[in-house]
Amino acid sequence: MSVSIRVCLVGAGRAGKVHANSLVYHVPAASVAGIVDAYPEALQDTGDQFGVDARFDSLEAALDGIEFDAVVITTPTFTHRSLAVLAAEVGKHVFLEKPMALTIAECDEIMGAAQRSGVLLQIGFMRRFAPEFVAAFERIQAGEIGRPMMIKSLSHGPGLPPPWALDLKKSNGLLAEVNSHDWDCTRWLMGSNPQRVYAEVANFKGEARGVTTSNFYDNALVNIRFENGGLGSISGVCPCDYGYDSRVEIVGELGIMQIGEMQGQAVVVCTDREQGLVTPIFRTWPERFAWGYIREMQHFIGCIQTDTPPSVGGEDGRWAVAGALAGTRSFFEERPVYLSEILDEGWTPS
Amino acid sequence: MSVSIRVCLVGAGRAGKVHANSLVYHVPAASVAGIVDAYPEALQDTGDQFGVDARFDSLEAALDGIEFDAVVITTPTFTHRSLAVLAAEVGKHVFLEKPMALTIAECDEIMGAAQRSGVLLQIGFMRRFAPEFVAAFERIQAGEIGRPMMIKSLSHGPGLPPPWALDLKKSNGLLAEVNSHDWDCTRWLMGSNPQRVYAEVANFKGEARGVTTSNFYDNALVNIRFENGGLGSISGVCPCDYGYDSRVEIVGELGIMQIGEMQGQAVVVCTDREQGLVTPIFRTWPERFAWGYIREMQHFIGCIQTDTPPSVGGEDGRWAVAGALAGTRSFFEERPVYLSEILDEGWTPS
Amino acid sequence: MSVSIRVCLVGAGRAGKVHANSLVYHVPAASVAGIVDAYPEALQDTGDQFGVDARFDSLEAALDGIEFDAVVITTPTFTHRSLAVLAAEVGKHVFLEKPMALTIAECDEIMGAAQRSGVLLQIGFMRRFAPEFVAAFERIQAGEIGRPMMIKSLSHGPGLPPPWALDLKKSNGLLAEVNSHDWDCTRWLMGSNPQRVYAEVANFKGEARGVTTSNFYDNALVNIRFENGGLGSISGVCPCDYGYDSRVEIVGELGIMQIGEMQGQAVVVCTDREQGLVTPIFRTWPERFAWGYIREMQHFIGCIQTDTPPSVGGEDGRWAVAGALAGTRSFFEERPVYLSEILDEGWTPS
Amino acid sequence: MSVSIRVCLVGAGRAGKVHANSLVYHVPAASVAGIVDAYPEALQDTGDQFGVDARFDSLEAALDGIEFDAVVITTPTFTHRSLAVLAAEVGKHVFLEKPMALTIAECDEIMGAAQRSGVLLQIGFMRRFAPEFVAAFERIQAGEIGRPMMIKSLSHGPGLPPPWALDLKKSNGLLAEVNSHDWDCTRWLMGSNPQRVYAEVANFKGEARGVTTSNFYDNALVNIRFENGGLGSISGVCPCDYGYDSRVEIVGELGIMQIGEMQGQAVVVCTDREQGLVTPIFRTWPERFAWGYIREMQHFIGCIQTDTPPSVGGEDGRWAVAGALAGTRSFFEERPVYLSEILDEGWTPS
Q: Looking at the predicted complex, does its ipTM rise above 0.85?
């Protein structure tokens, strides 16, 4: 286990804590060298919780103050490009949370910087490391359900996103913030890139929760045609309030496969026969993907130690950004949108 | 479908209504010729509900008043012997609810009367006709899980039994009233008779519900050794309040099989992430065994039409009575009791 | 139960048998007076199975030969209009299987004929009578999950449809033959009419199964926007081979509700730890909707007895036809299609 | 996190590897200082896998060769007393796998040694740390299902135990080797000590697998009466072949609670409608209790760091040994056996 990989956390919020937990308790080959956050409270809270004393209000300050090998970036999407490019340019390996960036151009900048510096770039698609998703992928690859014909993936998140994520211009909205994982895992499991998409969105709860951003929506339903002729559906609801819900269903030529379930902890109780059986639901994404988060970080550190490209890189992040943009353009223009329109034309919802 | 089989319902309570419903709505080959009950209110209620005008306060009166081919007896256990013997002796086919009778001697009397008169005798073990039990039995017979090694069967009923059933002397208690089905189905699915049993019982709720019968218990747990060397467990809880719960689990040399489940109607709801997923439980036994009740009555009528012995007869009822008595003697005497002690000695809990 | 309602079955195929079974065994107030089918073998088979001697090769012949009160029409879609109109015009109540007809104009003809003759018209949407759907509807109405925001409904059927149903011109294809139930139940449960739809379809298995019909597809995925702002998804796969799969999921402002499940009979077996637990799937639609089929026929007969309009009538059938046509036009023209375009313009896929 | 707690693994077999994995990858406050095993192959295998170079063929040799703070003992039961006493006497904290020891006298020796030396003693009842068991315990304590009336706990293990464990004299057999967890968790969750037990056992597979030990059995079913009047059932099957199965069901005065389930990874597949849905089962105990094993070791190390008595100590281990002995005596003597007979008389199956 020799030399520890020193990681600087950039972003001390909720996702930052999840990764800190993995690094501190479950990835013995790594250590948290420092934490960066512009918000003093988040910095103090996360620093105290994980016993990290080196705290900075900017990545630049961290680069001046401490030595480290890699960054784990969990800040808002609109900051990803500048932080990731900076880190890559000074030779730090980059773990970047989804969505990778706001535009295809930004994705290209990040990938270019990483390539030029020869650093590794991993995108935070933890589903790719969740044991049931890994097993499902392998079983599909082995032909168990035959050629996939139709895939459906949903992500419903319990609470209202942070203020910046309510604005499409800063976040690309729910289709990116919440559904990035669906864009990625449908493409991964289908084994094909999306070709065109059609999206419908709706805003049911915004007004009651004081969301005044004009382009806000809290429900999205996307139809996908893949390059290989397969069909796909992505749905997002946030806030859904009832729990964290992430499930995938695939129909292949030989059968059906379901990945994930709503029920969490295996404790079933019935105390009222008018009501019936009650089982815990997954309440939060860290709970739902506990092992996925641990294993993606083990993978990232392992890749650094062995100088191997991560299995989920910039290209994957870029496709998810393209999907979110194509979906957004679709409901803006009320028509199916080809991914090529996004990849070639650089459309953004501004 | 030619000539209808005319049935006289003896007992107009809850079980009587269940069978009336089957006969009137789901067994076109049969008709309800009359109803007998000593309680005028039950008589009126059930008669009105099913449009049966011929109503009597005794089986004797019905025999005088109307023509019919068969009886369906659902009265309290302590009345079974006299009613079944009377019906058989005058040439009526007998469908008799569980428990068959209070003692082995009574069972023998009933079987003897039926045999002498050449009438059919079917015991109300509806699990034998419930589709999932039928399929399970056939799959065990086909060797799917190998030779059964261990079987567990539970019956938990929601509410306090009627007053007469609280007294062991009139009912043999929970081990007979509720667990008759378990005595029968463990023997049926194990493919062997019980050899010896050990029972523990407890009384948790009696006092709070005003049960003053000295020998009342509301929890029972029985260990069984079968003649073929297999092991068994029967448990009963009544009142359990939380629903009607009836499940069986069998471990064979090649694997495990579970029959039945707690969740009823396939509607899952989550509206509170602190609480989780809510699914209806089976609330009552008529709901849980809806098809079992229909099919056992179709079987009975079909047997009459074709003059074929029912697949569940007096011998099966007698073994269940023996089991309940052996279990009762076991907790009375705090020792394992052999079934032979019951079958040979005529022990009763008096 | 007085006078029996005499029913003439028009169509002696699989659906005809399902309804014959309900009428003969579970609806004592009705009787099957005769059977009509152009195929002598089907006629003989179904007639023999249900003991019906009056058999005809056309509805006209049946009208000449026997007395009856109502028809149950289960013939191919392209025959619905003429049969239903004929039956209605001679004063017979009409139970008509889905899809109601091929075009909006045909639907209007049928409804007009029924109205003019004062006969009842019920469409075969058995989900409306399936106990779990009924309970779900009532719980949604009671506000349990709040205002529905998004609804998803799928129907996957195991086998290749009959030859005529492979041709859109004779059947409107999978979106009508299989997904009629989804068009109806999403509209019913959402409490709103569809406003516009976008459909993608694919043909994965046709060639290997010798389907040469040019417009055949075996996978369909539809996005719906409802008039009330809610979103919907319908998917169809046929042949899916793996079983009969029919499930609905609704997200409301207050929570989520799932209706139906894949597992059928409650028998779980494990005999191989590399494979895991095995549970029966619903194999066929008569098995999946056993009670739905019984109860819709009880409803139809009950409506006739009490001269009450059925709860599922021509208007409901017409909306499902409109949905299937809008979906078809959408994938023909690769754009979202408004229902008004179908209802107003009379588009057909010819 | 300051100073690391140095652990010497005593036993390099399967359980040893499970704890090594926890210590190396998930308990950053600890380190594996050395490994002890009499079998060179196990020593090399485990040492290589976890990168531990200090390897010894006896605890004595390890004490001579390296410095450490605690032992984790996973050797066969008949070695527990001497190893645990030795470790305790030289001041090492002791984590001791179940069963604690062979006799009550041995348990007392171990507890005495730990007490005299002032070292901590934790028994390996990982269910107490499995998240769903912890949640269940807390919910029972909070009164959610009322006073527990009946508890059932089963442990079915897939494969034939190691040779020494086939002999009751060296292991106390299945009731100890496999059911130790059930003895502990029923007592824990019921909140009461067992008062008397009755056990039936059977030997179905021994002969076919070449087990010639005269007292071997592979099925056990135990009835328990608890001091508080509650009832209990423990069942064990080993080898069951079909998977690793560990479930608990508790009926309280207010309702029922189920802990654990058979299905493992949430991937459901159906490719054959005659077979149905297939879901992975938990194949092994390390897979089933992945978090329980991690958290019990975090607890042990945390207790050492803070000098706090572990929540699961010698007294708990001793009760489980007493239960296994009482169950064994019961089937030897074919009668219910009081725990007091074991605790007072020192009975052993020799």
A: yes
